Each structure stands twice: as C-alpha cells, then as structure tokens.
Amino acid sequence: MLKDIRKPFQYPKLPIDKKEGAKKRAKAKDTKGTLRRIWSYLAERKGLLILVMLMVVISAIFGLLGPFVIGKAIDHFIVGRTVSGLIPVLLLLLVIYIIQSLSLWFQNYWMITISQGTVFRMRSELFTHLHELPIPFFDKQRHGELMSRVTNDIENVSSTLNTSVIQILSSVITFVGTVAVMLYMSPLLTVITLTIIPVMAVSLKWITNRTGKLFKEQQKNLGELNGYIEESVSGAKVIKAYSREKQITAEFLEKNAALKTS
C-alpha cells in the first residue's frame, strides 16, 4: 500500500542546467516587483475589486451562518421533538442561502470582468512590444516559444486572477470564522481538531517542493515544443525537400516525452 502511495511521486530526475537554474532563481526573487506590476493593472479597476472583496466577505460569513443555524435547528427541533417555530427558521435559512448565492454570483462575475480586462491589456501591450523589438531578437528566440508567452503564460495569469485571489481571501475568512464558531461551541474539540494542521502543512510542503520544480520545467518544455512545432510546420517544404521527416519526428517525440515526464 505504501508503494502505491509513493508511486505518483517517484519520477525521473530531469537534467537542468545549473546556470539556467540560477538564472530562474534570480528572476524568482523579484516576486514583489512582479506583484507590484500586476497590481498596477488591477488598480485601474480598484472600485470593482473592492466590491469583489466585499462579496467574498459576505459569501464567507453567510456560508458559515447557514450550517450554524442548521445545527441550532437540529438541536432544538429534532432533538427536542418540536415543530413550533420551525417555519421562521426555514425562512431564515432560505434568506441566508439566497444572499450567499447572489454574493457568489456577483463576486465571480466581477472578478472575471477584472481578470479578462487585465489580461486583455497585458496581451495587447505584449503584442505591441513584440513589434518594437529588433530583428536579431527574433533570430535568437523560437517563434513558438514567443507564441506560448502570449497565449499560455497570459492564460495562466488569467486563471490565477479568476480563482486564486478569491480563494485565498475566502479561505482565510472561512478558516477564521470556522475556528471562532468551533471555539464558541467546544474549545476542547477545537484544539483536538486543529492538531491536524501541522501534519497538513508538512505534507503540503513536501509535495510542493517536488511539484514546483516540475511545473517550471513543464512550462519550459511546453515553450520548446510549441517553438519546434511552429518551425516544423512553417518549414514543411524544406523538410520534405531534404527528406528530414524521420529526424524531425524523432526530435519531436523526444521533446514531447520531456513535456510528458515533467
């Protein structure tokens, strides 16, 4: 059983150039600068972003309030075997879940509006910037890799803004609210339940230390594969003229296997 659990994490080590790895680490150190640049784009829709945050707070609070009211209803009406006053409680629950659903809908709608507007501007500026670069730059870069930057990388930014921003804030509020309600109901059970958090933190760190490197390698291999495909398709006539199909196919399979492994 232990072997089956460990199997997904037993992958072949990928050869990464030390100089290239050092360069990646140096770039990753400017996380604050990257976040500041992304915020400069988001700041254009600051009012809408505040509304999103407000909707996240409302949805998190009412998401906690619903189960709390249900718990009280079970204790009073089911355990107490009485139906007197049940209708007002059911109506209260209906109002709670309607408000939560509306807040979820608005926060997702507005966040998608913000993220798509942001990536639209980023994609437009990147496309314009590519046309201002000197010709030698394109001689040294794979065209497919540049296309991957404009499409795949920007799409990753979009998906991150769509989900991660909301999830982080919502998770923090839900966690704090849940712990507060648990402490109110039973401090002893709360302490016992929270003992699992250190185990989860260690487990997640163990997993992310391994998957993080592979994610970077995956993006690199994806860019190389896109570049190779673009060059192969655009140069198909030359490949056919010199009968290089087998070599091109073999190199493609090698790059495809590297992407699959990562």
Question: What's the β-strand tally?
Answer: 0
Largest sheet: none
Secondary-structure class:
mainly alpha
The CATH architecture designation of the largest domain is Up-down Bundle
Let me know the average pLDDT: 82
- Rg calculated over all Cα atoms: 26 Å
Residue windows where pLDDT falls under 50 for at least 5 positions: 16-27
Q: What percentage of the residues does DSSP assign to strands (E)?
A: under 5%
Question: How is the CATH topology of the largest domain named?
Answer: ABC transporter transmembrane region fold
Helical region count? 11
Percent of residues in helices: over 70%
Question: How many structural domains does the protein architecture include?
Answer: 2
Q: What sort of overall outline do the alpha carbons produce when their principal axes are compared? A: elongated
- The top-level CATH class of the largest domain is Mainly Alpha
Element-level helix/strand string: HHHHHHHHHHH
CATH superfamily of the largest domain: ABC transporter type 1, transmembrane domain
Descriptive overview:
- By secondary structure, this protein is an all-alpha fold.
- It contains eleven helices and no strands.
- α4 runs parallel beside α7.
- It is elongated and about 85 Å long.
Structure summary:
Helices cover 87% and strands 0% of the residues. It has 262 residues and is mainly α.
Annotation keywords:
single chain, 262 residues, mainly alpha, ABC transporter transmembrane region fold, 2 domains
